[in-house]
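Sorry, any thoughts here?
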Amino acid sequence: MTAASVLAFAGLCVVLAITPGPDTFLVLRFSVSRPGAGIAASLGSAVGSLAWALAVALGLAALLEQSAEVYRVLKIVGGLYLIYLGVMAFIASRRNRSGTGIETPVRRTSLHGGFAAGILSTMTNPKVGLFFLAVAPQFVPHDGFTIGNTLLLGAIDALVGSLYLVVVALLAGRAVAWLKRPAVTTWLERVSAGILAALGLGTIALSAES
């Protein structure tokens, strides 16, 4: 695989990374309560991306292209998970308000929870697998190193995506630390929760129509 091919693929990954999606809003949601958890979610998303690349390299993700039913089921599972994250985030934001009307600090999210959520969010998004399935053959030469080259592309995508999401997490964390207003933090949590739930509902709705 030539350097030009690697750079072209990296450029494509940058374009895809800066396009807001479930992972971006997930990282924002965790970063509001704890920047470290947002970074952990970013790393989890990278691991999930590598897992998809490995699946494609081994030919497992071909099932998604051959079976519309498998694709639909996986999309629905991913949509339900996003709705779950949105509902839990909204419940947590309500708990951050005391009965006296005085807001309490936002509950800190564990690093493990953020990392696990990042993995699950990416692994239940079949579009990541289909991306590798559709794009990788255009960059991987027929030189007998298909698995290695596909994993290299996966590593590039994971690196680009995680770097972008880490920047998002750090910027979100700095903003919250600068404002230091629980009311604003709670509002951001509810907005991100609503976006996650909306993405989940949209995914399920589109899957039902297809």
About this structure: The CA atoms of residues 103 and 183 lie 7 Å apart.
